[in-house]
Amino acid sequence: MSHGYALSRCRCWLRCLLSQLSVGTPLLLLGLVAARPAFADKALIHVFINQRQESGRPWHGIGDPILGHFILKSPNEAPGAVLCVVSQDGQSYCIREQHGRLESPCPQSYDCDFRHVELPGDEIFGIVVLDPALVFVHLVDAVVITRTPMGDEDPKVRRMDAILRNIAARRAPPIFTEVQRRSRPFPVTSLSDCDDRACILRQSKMLIRIDGAQR
């Protein structure tokens, strides 16, 4: 088959295909080809960690056993927040994670600013706040964030809660009384509620300000 004949057949096939498509179909095809970006917004997230854990214990102190010994840390030593973002399909990333090691941009501080945080474009996503100690990683809070109000029993909310629970268990395995505390569903809040004022969570408060948003 000659090159000219093959090119002619290709053009004929293309004209026939286009003749069968409605006016709106090419636009639909273009929409399918153009993938939605993974992240829709960037935000400033300010985390205020409570002075003590929900149990009443200080964040750091005697604990963290290693080979039968104990690491002694000052009971007054503040935690250091690490923030992780979780999409609706379970993909996640943590701010300043290097080769699997979590580093807080605000070590030994009860409040921390995370700037230009990329938020998923999903209608529902999650945020996890961790406190990486020398041995154990503490779960400060996990929260389900919705772009429009949803009830706590909405199937999408419950599915997101399960995803956050799995990530929290992997990043910060529960120990001792923490197992019971995590048996409750994580808090659920809308994105706009955390923008108007800081959302009150279990062991912290969180303020989320979308970059460039009008106030």
Describe this structure in words.
The protein is an alpha+beta fold. Helices cover 26% and strands 33% of the residues. The chain folds into 2 domains: 3-33; 39-210, no CATH class. The chain has helices at residues 3-20, 24-33, 155-171, 178-181, 191-196, and strands at 39-49, 63-66, 69-71, 82-86, 92-94, 97-98, 101-102, 111-120, 124-132, 137-146, 188-190, 199-200, 204-210. Strands 5-4-9-10-11 form a 5-stranded mixed β-sheet. It is globular. It starts with a helix and ends in a 5-residue tail after the last strand. The model is unreliable at 16-37 and 63-73 (pLDDT under 50).
Radius of gyration: 24 Å
First and last CA, distance:
67 Å
Number of domain modules:
2
Biggest sheet architecture: 5 strands, mixed
Looking across the biggest beta sheet, what order are the strands in? 5-4-9-10-11
User: How confident is the prediction overall: mean pLDDT?
Assistant: 79
Ranges where pLDDT stays below 50 over 5 or more residues in a row are 16-37, 63-73
Structural class: alpha+beta
Number of helices, where a helix is a run of at least 4 consecutive DSSP H or I residues: 5
User: How much β-strand is present in the residues?
Assistant: 25-35%
Query: What percentage of residues falls in helices of 4 or more residues?
Result: 25-40%
Shape, per Cα inertia axes:
globular
Number of strands: 13
What is the ordering of alpha helices and beta strands?
A: HHEEEEEEEEEEHHEHEE
